[in-house]
Predict the 3D structure of the following.
Amino acid sequence: MHPLTGDARLPRYQQLRDHMVMQIANNRWRPGEAIPTEAALAAEFDMSVGTVRKAVDVLVAEGVLERQQGRGTFIRRPQFQSSLFRFFRFETANGERVVPESRILAITAVPAPSAVAQALGLGAQAEVIRMQRIRLLGAQPVLAEEIWLPRQPFQALLEVDLDSKGPLLYPIYEHLCGQVVASAEETLTAEAVDAVHGRLLHLPADSPVVVIERLARDYAGKPLEWRRSRGHAQHFRYRIDIR
Amino acid sequence: MHPLTGDARLPRYQQLRDHMVMQIANNRWRPGEAIPTEAALAAEFDMSVGTVRKAVDVLVAEGVLERQQGRGTFIRRPQFQSSLFRFFRFETANGERVVPESRILAITAVPAPSAVAQALGLGAQAEVIRMQRIRLLGAQPVLAEEIWLPRQPFQALLEVDLDSKGPLLYPIYEHLCGQVVASAEETLTAEAVDAVHGRLLHLPADSPVVVIERLARDYAGKPLEWRRSRGHAQHFRYRIDIR
DNA sequence: GTTATATAGACATATATATGAATTTGAGGG
DNA sequence: CCCTCAAATTCATATATATGTCTATATAAC
């Protein structure tokens, strides 16, 4: 039994929620693992099971945890393959979803442009890794991405052959660099394609492209990656539910 | 004290939630009004306050109700001005948000095209109201909308001067037709503008436009309106949070 | 009449307890 | 070795109760 460290003026269930977010951010439990049972947490923090449940309710609503009746409560692994591919529908001729292949055009360490440094919360001339890649369906390019990462925790990316590790970057970040992407903010807009991206995407001049900018964060909210993706507008379809 | 009518195999808090959704859909309470207190509901349905709170929790999470400590629990009025204007940023030169004016180009009753009938859940040749309008910032058209409504509950719209009642339709639906929009689903995509909409929006050929299709429903989930809006891509910027 | 103050009403937090339902584990039987 | 079934574990539902906090209203003081 040990005490909560947070702001004692807050409700106890909020204190426990904050405490658990910290524990998750500090890797006390890994994604996919079970947290202690409600009874164990109640004993550990000397509160009733009802209060523990309320704290867990909040984290479930926030998408951090996932309950399974009879099994336990688990750290949820964010499903980012669904994120980008909720928007872009890449399908084969017979209609099944596919993840486009990845071809990396360049990956280098450079001083951060000011916009990137600001997005990632870095100092003015911090070193960042810049990656350019193309996503392809067969021979057809469908998405052009530029990706920026702080150099320090992601140094290892410069020393391996990324194309051999599959098209999804976030599992690579986790296994190679120990960085877990937990949430992201995206901004979405459309524009007429410029000359450079028209060539990359095999699009005629002035074709409409969708532009998605994404800032990905870890469990503690620290920015890990900033990227900008441009894709064919025909492939783009996004659905929103209001209220 | 009277019994719940729903499926008795469901948890009681779910039964109460379902019951209250029906009451709201049947206008037992209007948007903005307070529902009975937790103690009163507990007495009315012969359950504990804790169970009532859980049912209310669900409706609050769904955005149907809104709690105010010390005052009561209220039917939430959806804020749809924020919906479209979370996507499109219409601002004056000095940066303040504005709602574009509305000019209705046409409003007529016609047999429903099959796609519209399907979206609205109507029979094959049901009568619908078709409205075309342009949204303007000063002299500049920024949005072209086509709006489809089932004729029966919205007949009154054909008999008044809509342009004199301001640019927001949902308050008009509520006051003139007694129809309250409670939720909506939107689908978002981009395309190159066609000749007709290029003329309407004063855009050169092949400019990128964002297309938003919306199906609006009442509290019971019945479709009330289907619309398709096209707007300048430059004005469009949408932000999403993913976990 | 205006301003404090007290009170009542309503939701918020917290605990305790009992029972139900889904899952896992492990003992026995074949 | 495999299958079945019972028991233990864990979350889900439901109730009861006490106290705190916020709001609105009524009362008292000036």
Notes: Chain A has two domains: 12-75, 80-235. The longest strand of chain A covers residues 101-111.
